[in-house]
């Protein structure tokens, strides 16, 4: 939520020496009602079936409508009952969903004396919400100060939640720039442990976490938890990571930075901001980045001790820094970004663990003219799901505060083929947009910097965490309406989107496969 602009280059390495505090063990703070008129019914979204576009002779060829034998794609969209900037989510094997909803309502609210109407944002905090009924109702299960209803920590920046689907452990890293509180729960948020110095290196921002099988150099060092927990972050001067070999109790730095903030080989001052980290069945790490205006991927085969950097495309630019990567059950690597010129989404596939990538595909549905911050997930081999805000309105020559945006959901079951097929729908009725006005190439108004999408290990269908910046603004949904600026409405309402019908993305138990892969390791 808050990205560092110019912090000092920190050399202090922080190690959390077994600091673990009980942060809960009480009833949940309260229930948050899911709010839709008929939350069981599929959303009346815009649907499409198509093959992707390409980049040919310096120009983008559009995607093309194509019939499909797949079951139609439909989704359920529910308001989680709280505003949510940059929402993330995770789902465990039992189908319990966890949602990080952060907004500017922290208890420490210094008011600007020049802001008589109190329209400027106050300090942010995150609630961890849980749904046990398929996303229809949401309950606040945030870790708290013992004996109180105050969340701990009371004020944080970038909101995040991550679920290790093999163990069911829920991780909630709460950023405070110097490091993070790493809250984690093994009982679906009923009780929590908290490590207040969880990062591996001081001064960090824009965190991302993932768990993965320990590579050969780390396997003998694991203590009390089967998977390595990685925590990567931006320091402007570089993009670096820490790792925990005991499930989050202690952290140490991984090694060399994944990316250098100043990189003469890539074009100079590139900064340290990046996308969310991913891993595969062998414990390889993949960190995506819009690096000096180009799509790059850092790959590590030794738990972040060393990194190799790959430029995914020489032809297609990157519009921003927060790009996306994921892997499927066959360890194919998918890299997703949007370009600076056309502002359309591009997908490139690697079948050699990120060493090389095929020709990028333009994966927006027919008629979409612009997108922002696309993210993705994968299931079985060739099966992927993507989400992004997009618009079908023409690109304006200047600002257009009336331009409507929708949340698109896209799936493919054959993404590794030379010409794959895609199905799409929207999380909202296009008559009720989620945003109006400009959207990028950087921050997209009250949607902020990114969204999230995962595959449920229970039924193999996707869940997405997105935001709606129009519901609370009078006139925003009307064709002549105009959404206010970010200081007037800082955060959109949090929405949880669950796939109801359409292709199943996963039939295999990735958690069991990870455990089996550890057993086969020499």
List the helices and strands and how they pair.
Elements: E1 21-22, E2 30-32, E3 48-51, E4 54-56, E5 59-61, E6 64-65, E7 74-83, E8 88-91, E9 97-103, E10 125-131, E11 138-140, E12 162-163, E13 170-175, E14 180-185, E15 193-195, E16 205-212, E17 228-234, E18 238-244, E19 252-253, E20 259-260, E21 262-263, E22 268-269, E23 278-279, E24 285-291, E25 294-300, E26 308-311, E27 324-327, E28 333-338, E29 345-350, E30 361-362, E31 370-371, E32 375-378, E33 384-391, E34 404-412, E35 422-426, E36 435-436, E37 452-455, E38 462-468, E39 493-501, H1 510-520
Antiparallel strand pairs: 1-15, 2-11, 3-6, 3-35, 4-5, 7-39, 8-9, 9-10, 10-11, 12-13, 13-14, 14-15, 16-17, 17-18, 18-19, 18-20, 21-22, 23-24, 24-25, 25-26, 27-28, 28-29, 29-30, 31-33, 32-33, 33-34, 34-35, 34-36, 37-38, 38-39
Major sheet description: 8 strands, antiparallel
- Mean pLDDT across the residues is 85
Number of strands: 39
What is the gyration radius calculated from CA atoms?
21 Å
Number of helix segments?
A: 1
What is the rounded distance between the termini?
A: 42 Å
Helical amount among residues, as a percent range? under 10%
Structural class designation: mainly beta
Shape, principal axes of CA atoms: globular
- Residue stretches low in confidence (pLDDT < 50, at least 5 long) are 2-39, 481-489
């Amino acid at each position: 939520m808050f990205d560092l602009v110019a912090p000092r280059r920190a050399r202090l390495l922080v190690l959390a020496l077994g600091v673990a505090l009980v942060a809960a063990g009480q009833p949940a703070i309260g229930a948050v009602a899911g709010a839709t008129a008929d939350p069981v019914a599929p959303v009346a979204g815009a649907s499409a079936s198509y093959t992707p576009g390409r980049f040919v002779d310096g120009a983008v060829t559009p995607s093309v409508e194509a019939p499909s034998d797949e079951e139609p794609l439909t989704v359920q969209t529910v308001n989680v009952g709280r505003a949510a900037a940059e929402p993330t989510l995770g789902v465990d094997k039992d189908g319990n969903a966890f949602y990080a909803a952060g907004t500017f309502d922290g208890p420490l609210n210094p008011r600007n004396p020049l802001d008589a109407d109190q329209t400027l944002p106050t300090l942010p905090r995150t609630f961890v919400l849980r749904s046990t009924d398929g996303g229809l109702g949401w309950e606040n299960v945030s870790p708290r100060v013992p004996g109180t209803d105050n969340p701990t920590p009371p004020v944080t920046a970038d909101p995040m939640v991550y679920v290790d689907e093999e163990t069911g452990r829920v991780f909630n890293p709460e950023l405070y720039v110097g490091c993070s509180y790493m809250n984690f729960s093994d009982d679906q948020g009923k009780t929590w442990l908290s490590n207040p110095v969880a990062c591996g290196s001081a001064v960090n921002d824009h965190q991302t976490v993932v768990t993965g099988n320990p590579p050969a150099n780390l396997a003998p060092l694991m203590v009390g938890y089967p998977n390595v927990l990685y925590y990567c972050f931006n320091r402007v001067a570089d993009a670096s990571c820490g790792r925990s070999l005991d499930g989050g109790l202690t952290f140490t730095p991984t090694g060399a930075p994944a990316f250098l903030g100043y990189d003469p080989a890539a074009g100079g001052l590139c900064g340290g901001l990046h996308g969310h980290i991913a891993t595969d069945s062998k414990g390889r790490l993949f960190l995506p980045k819009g690096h000096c205006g180009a799509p790059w991927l850092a790959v590590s085969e030794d738990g972040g001790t060393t990194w190799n950097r790959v430029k995914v495309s020489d032809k297609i630019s990157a519009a921003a820094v927060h790009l996306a990567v994921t892997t499927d059950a066959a360890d194919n690597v998918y890299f997703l970004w949007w370009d600076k010129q056309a502002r359309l989404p591009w997908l490139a596939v690697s079948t050699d663990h990120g060493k090389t990538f095929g020709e990028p595909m333009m994966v927006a549905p027919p008629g979409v003219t612009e997108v922002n911050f696309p993210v993705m997930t994968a299931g079985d081999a060739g099966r992927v799901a993507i989400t992004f805000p997009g618009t079908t309105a023409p690109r304006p020559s200047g600002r257009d505060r009336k331009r409507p945006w929708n949340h698109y959901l896209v799936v493919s079951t054959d993404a590794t083929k030379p010409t794959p097929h895609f199905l799409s729908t929207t999380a909202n009725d296009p008559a009720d947009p989620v945003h109006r006005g400009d959207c990028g190439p950087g921050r997209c108004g009250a949607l902020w910097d990114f969204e999230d999408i995962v595959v449920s290990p229970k039924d193999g269908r996707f869940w997405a965490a997105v935001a709606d910046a129009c519901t609370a603004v009078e006139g925003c949904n009307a064709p002549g309406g105009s959404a206010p600026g970010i200081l007037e409405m800082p955060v959109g309402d949090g929405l949880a989107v669950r796939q109801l019908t359409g292709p199943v993305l996963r039939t295999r138990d990735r958690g069991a496969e990870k455990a089996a892969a550890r057993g086969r390791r020499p």
